[in-house]
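Need residues for this backbone.
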């Protein structure tokens, strides 16, 4: 059964500015695995922005937002060998999803020049 859906769109330029100018931005919001995926990409701000959008979309799907200690870095977007993205949870966010009996998480990303978007569906 679908128990939640979330969507988000981010301006790539906003993320590009943070990556270039704000020390510690990447480490605050992205895991080592996400950074390793995005860094070698051409126009990597798009990939970072898509992951940022996916984290926001995830919290929308959950219905809580990222309040109560839930953190962006507890939601990791990892791609499989075919390039398909998935979400791995950690910490309090993982515990909360277990409490809500969430059994599946589906994510899709897209990016064009100026915008990155993500949709997340939760299965209960
Ligand atoms: C995967 C594919 C549908 C992406 O579509 P696109 O319009 O090129 O690019 P979009 O910006 O909409 O989507 C990119 C996102 O698709 C997702 N994606 C990649 N491979 C995927 C797959 N096998 N299944 C689901 N999602 C996938 C990724 O999340 C990617 O973003 P990320 O690299 O930041 O994680 C398309 O590239 C494809 O079919 N590729 C396989 C065949 C191929 O490689 N052809 C070469 C080009 S002709």
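Answer:
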């Amino acid at each position: 059964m679908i128990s939640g859906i979330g969507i988000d769109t981010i301006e790539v330029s906003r993320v590009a500015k943070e990556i270039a100018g704000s020390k510690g931005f990447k480490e605050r919001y992205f895991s080592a695995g996400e950074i390793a995926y995005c860094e070698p990409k051409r126009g990597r701000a798009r990939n970072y922005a898509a992951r940022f959008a996916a984290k926001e979309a995830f919290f929308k799907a959950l219905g809580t937002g990222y309040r109560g200690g839930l953190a962006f870095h507890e939601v990791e977007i990892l791609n499989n060998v075919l390039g398909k993205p998935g979400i791995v949870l950690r910490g309090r966010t993982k515990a909360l999803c277990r409490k809500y009996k969430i059994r599946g998480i589906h994510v899709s990303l897209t990016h064009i020049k100026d915008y990155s978007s993500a949709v997340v569906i939760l299965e209960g």
